[in-house]
Amino acid sequence: MAMNYNAKDEVDGGPQCPPGGPAKNRRPDNTAFKQQRLPAWQPILTAGTVLPTFFIIGLIFIPIGIGIFVTSNNIREIEIDYTGTDPSSPCNKCLSPNATPCYCTINFTLEQSFEGNVFMYYGLSNFYQNHRRYVKSRDDSQLNGDSSALLNPSKECEPYRRNEDKPIAPCGAIANSMFNDTLELFLVGNESYPTPIPLKKKGIAWWTDKNVKFRNPSGGESLKERFKGTTKPVNWVKPVYMLDSEPDNNGFINEDFIVWMRTAALPTFRKLYRLIERKSDLHPTLPAGRYYLNITYNYPVHSFDGRKRMILSTISWMGGKNPFLGIAYIAIGSISFLLGVVLLVINHKYRNSSNTADITI
Amino acid sequence: MRAPAYPGSARILDMTECLQWARYHWQRLMGSRNRDDDERPYSYSSLLACGGKSSQTPKLAGKHRVVVPHLRPFKDEYDKFSGTYVNNRIRTTKYTLLNFVPRNLFEQFHRAANLYFLFLAVLNWVPLVEAFQKEITMLPLVVVLTIIAIKDGLEDYRKYKIDKQINNLVTQVYSRKEKKYVDQCWKDVAVGDFIRLSCNEVIPADMVLLFSTDPDGICHIETSGLDGESNLKQRQVVRGYAEQDSEVDPEKFSSKIECESPNNDLNRFRGYLEHSNKERVGLSKENLLLRGCTIRNTEAVAGIVVYAGHETKAMLNNSGPRYKRSKLERRANTDVLWCVLLLVVMCLTGALGHGIWLSRYENIMFFNIPEPDGHVISPVLAGFYMFWTMIILLQVLIPISLYVSIEIVKLGQIYFIQSDVDFYNEKMDSTVQCRALNITEDLGQIQYLFSDKTGTLTENKMVFRRCSVAGFDYCHEENAKRLESYQEAISEDEDSTDTPVDSLSNMVKPRAPSCRSVHNGPLGSKCSNHLAGSCSALGSREGASEVPHSRQAAFSSPIETDVVPDTRLLDKFSQITPQLFTPLDETIPDPLLETLYIMDFFIALAICNTVVVSAPNQPRQKIGLSSLSGMPIKSLEEIKNLFQRLSVRRSSSPSLAGGKEPSPGVPNAFVSRLSLFSRMKLASPVEEETSPGSERPQGSGDSPCPPDMEKQNSDPGLPEGETAPSPGQPSTSTLCYEAESPDEAALVYAARAYQCTLRSRTPEQVVVDFAALGSLTFQLLHILPFDSVRKRMSVVVRHPLSNQVVVYTKGADSVIMELLSVASPDGASLEKQQMIIREKTQKHLDDYARRGLRTLCIAKKVMSDAEYAEWLRNHFLAETSIDHREELLLESAMRLENKLTLLGATGIEDRLQEGVPESIEALQKAGIKIWMLTGDKQETAVNIAYACKLLEAGDKLFILNTQSKDACERLMSTILKELQEKNPASPEPPSPREGLPRLPATQDSRLRAGLVITGKALEFALQESLQRQFLELTACCQAVVCCRATPLQKSEVVKLVRNHLRVMTLAIGDGANDVSMIQVADIGIGISGQEGMQAVMASDFAIAQFKHLGKLLLVHGHWCYTRLSNMILYFFYKNVELP
């Protein structure tokens, strides 16, 4: 390249016999950027800065942790396993696949009343909704009401795409495995007959899911007509247009369906089933007392050692019951405080022997 | 393009390496094409036969090429030979429009990173393992490839434009049709073409010089485009052509040229020119003009192209930037490989786990979703698919972007290093140059530093300090004072611009941009301040201003050119009279003999060199010739018999010197010149001609030094009166000496201070103005140039006064001392005297060396003509051989340089560069061990080591200077024992495996020790059996000084330390002798200083001064290392810990 350079010089420089004065000075600019003098700050860790930091972290984190822990502990939660694996359980009878439909009732007692809105969940264990191929086994455009996708679902849905030469609506493994137990809650009060607790089935899905992501197919008067030419998923009892009686909670926009379609990340999960709204300020939503749970037992979990639970829970400003966060805060705060003390002792003991002159930065 | 065995495919390459790779292969490709050209079936005939006994058709070995003139009569032959050689079109681009896409892709996929991306993208197209949307995974790959392709394309386009520009440069080529020189583009020049070039034109292709307007057949070229050396080099017209008085006529040129096939050795060219009558003339590099050089100082030249285009030496030498892999990067590479392993393990675990988990639910179709056809995949197969899926999913584990990021960060670091204003050197107008792009962080990891001495630690500005002639030491105290007061003198000087001299020099100087002019005028004010009147006539002073920018580093600065003579020596010197030579018998009394020695000594200083004399303000004027025109020398014309002794009339008195010849205006009146052998003009005829364009009124006829008068007169800006004060001054001159090495110039300047001024130098003769004797013209019979093997140089001249053949030899003292005659023919008394002189001189030499001076010995030898003729015949045989020429020439030189008579010795000071001691102290404080490797002698080296604080006054110095291996071993063990006893507290010297530098804190408590080892002992220490012991020994020493080390030993030392101690080494040097060391070390640093550019070309970083090393290593090295290592650590954290 030196050669090229030289020749180029010659071209635009003309004769070089007198290589004139230094027209171009190669001195680099003396700017803050080029000389790496831009203001910068770098923490230099000394006892004077580290020790207070540790103590401050300790002092801040421990109260926060305690607060969170207390809040979490104030949340009422009850969990009832109704799988029926225990022979004494009322639902044990439903384990055999022949008994369909199967009804069972489980009694339980609330020691304390549940204040405010109460959320009713169903929980499944050992159910791998996170399986990669399971997760993919759905057709979002079909669920969004796309008419062509309705009749010709995506390949991802295989092998739950077509049944008896008809497209399945909703297609795919997720929809096919939809949770279909029915839970009803009764308060056994002082009266002779039990009071049914009103369970609200709307408002349990995300607004975007309900209004944007999931739509019923267009056209046709009744929902049934709109789903014409499709067939129900293999495992379903009823077709999709008969999930509910209310038209705005039927078909693809059925909220139970929407909740199910949002797959869980872990094999043990809970999904919102119903809302129990607070009636008035005077009475607790669920007063303490005896209750019984009526279950229409459809969903088989025995084959994969699964468990089914019903959960009732209240919430606080930080969500559901979660003691971990508080404990973590307290632990970190304590460790930090402890380290601070240790370092303080070390610093106090060895301060004079160390030669700070060595450290020049 | 054949697929090369590419060693790096297993490694993960980065961008630069890819480019480097491409460049390398391109060159390989070019090279192989060249080779194909030459592998035509030639048979070898004896090329060594120098009598022209070749057979009818030129038979050549595969190694040779035949160049036939590109003319009609030789059309057949031309087509046969030269027609097949590549023409002068160059193409440095990698791609063409057509092959850009495939070739660029091909090259990009040599990067493992890209291959990995591609593999993942392809994997994602397999439906069974597909993890993401197919198109999305292609996206990053496509983006990366496109960006790099655009970058490559732009780079290539830039090269293409430059190529085009160069290819379309115009030069004058002889045209067959028009029978004259016509303009043609460079690209159309072919081998065998005749080219005519004027001054300042760039040479388009390697060509053999056939004609030069210079009457001596010399052409000056500047090779700064090739090697950065800015001094002018002489090239010689092919023998037999120099004597032609008219320009060579291509139509009549009927010779053939046979030469080596193209190679990249700039300093070698061998071949011969065969005339139509089968007579052969040897060709050497002296006859070759290299592409890319510039013609200087010569009106016009013509030549025949022998190598063109990519086969020129310049192009073959064009290698891209060096590629070194930094230690950190190697470490990162292994870590990445660990990541790959981790990925595989993770994927295997995932696959296994998946298989096992799936086998539990084999028959449950809940989330074990069956295949479309209904059957469930077996868990084993599912696990296998899962493995590949996992690889796609966990691809981020391998920090592929790390490489790109490192590359970018390093570019940024280089930008910051290069723009550091602290590295700027005002004098050179240069700053640090990062030639290797990816070892910035290694700068911060240096543990051992190997430094050259001359030019690196010292300025390599040679200052004549003292000399010893005939056993008497002349200490030049005034000169020493001058050097001390040099700095203030400069400032004083700048103030005193009102003197006429200053105005004179000021007028001359600005017009002398390319070379530093020296004006020996009437005494300058500062000179008289501290000088006795004895020097008033000789007081020399430098110009008022420094030359604005010193690209021409080869030219001497005032501090070197000014020498204040020693009064004692001057007194003796003044005794030299022409009468001294009248009784040419051997009965010279002792004092006279001493005077004779002094005279010979100064003559040797003035002529035993290769200094080019030029006038600074008119570079194209030939001083030498103009001064010759004033010479009344009438030589005898009969030169028919080569070995017959010829007489040259002695110019016995200065009064004879004067302009008797009617020189002005006579255009190129060449007297027929005969030359039978190269540089063999025993007596060449008087050359009476002037340089074109210069008018030379021979005003002061009695002045023995007309040239500088002419110079001043010819300068239109100078009033006549300005020159008037000078007639009394015998050596008023603005001569400029261009020397290959600064020592030579220093000696010439020293000689000039004693009124022994080198006036001119042509290949045939040297003119010296000698104070009392006037101009002496020495017939230059032969020059044996300096080389590092012989460590000396010689000139063979015919002494104009005694008319004897005299050999003047100058060289390292150790060498010369061995070559001195043991039995002098001059009788017992003289012999005894010689012995005394020898002893005394040796003592002085030791003294000089102790003072840190570079010593040189000057010796002479008088030969009889018969002896000379005999030697010459043998030498000629050696010179004309193509193969083994070097060995034969060496032998021949040995035959000449023996039985010498010692004249004296010189001591030249090599001043320490500014800031060197501070830098060395800082580096040692940082725990870096510094070794000094130098070719200088022990005393000088140790002295410099003390001066630059490498050794401290309290250090215990161990000297390893043995002549045998056993002694060396014994000495080493004794030293080692002693050291270990002295340092009982210190742990065992580190074994080679754990050779970490001790912390400075621990060193303080210990005895500081330095080791000095000489070349001979080093040779033993480097042997396998003693290596370990040597390293143990050096580990105990704070500093190691290796003196008298050859370049090869330097590199071996570096290699030894690097390989056995597993440490990071840095070598710093400035000269060609440091190149091997620079290349071997982990980091090579070149100092762009006085000794040309070879070291810089071989280095990874080039700095202007040694003092910059401190900041480069301790600040930038540290920053680069911490920043880069933090970045790499973060990358691993980001990719591995947070996928």
From TrEMBL, chain A:
The chain crosses the membrane at residues 44-70, 324-346. GO terms for biological process: phospholipid translocation. It is found in: Apical cell membrane; Cytoplasmic vesicle, Secretory vesicle membrane; Golgi apparatus; Membrane. It comes from the Eukaryota. It is a multi-pass membrane protein. InterPro entries: CDC50/LEM3_fam. Keywords: Cell membrane, Cytoplasmic vesicle, Disulfide bond, Glycoprotein, Golgi apparatus, Lipid transport, Membrane, Transmembrane, Transmembrane helix, Transport. Belongs to the CDC50/LEM3 family. This is Cell cycle control protein.
Automatic annotation (TrEMBL), chain B:
Its cofactor is Mg(2+). GO terms for biological process: phospholipid translocation. It is found in: Endoplasmic reticulum membrane; Membrane. Gene3D superfamilies: Calcium-transporting ATPase, cytoplasmic domain N, Calcium-transporting ATPase, cytoplasmic transduction domain A, Calcium-transporting ATPase, transmembrane domain, HAD superfamily/HAD-like. Residues 683-735, 979-1000 are annotated as: Disordered. The active site is at D452 (4-aspartylphosphate intermediate). Its EC number is 7.6.2.1. Residues 82-137 form the P-type ATPase N-terminal domain. GO terms for molecular function: ATP binding; ATP hydrolysis activity; glycosylceramide flippase activity; magnesium ion binding. Residues 1096-1136 form the P-type ATPase C-terminal domain. It comes from the Eukaryota. It is a multi-pass membrane protein. It is an enzyme of class 7 (translocase). The keyword Transmembrane helix applies. ATP binds at D452, K453, T454, E744, F786, K810, R854, T934, G935, D936, R1044, K1050, N1073, D1074. The keyword NAD does not apply. PROSITE patterns: ATPASE_E1_E2 (PS00154). It holds the Pfam family Cation_ATPase. Belongs to the cation transport ATPase (P-type) (TC 3.A.3) family. Type IV subfamily. This is Phospholipid-transporting ATPase. The gene is ATP10D.
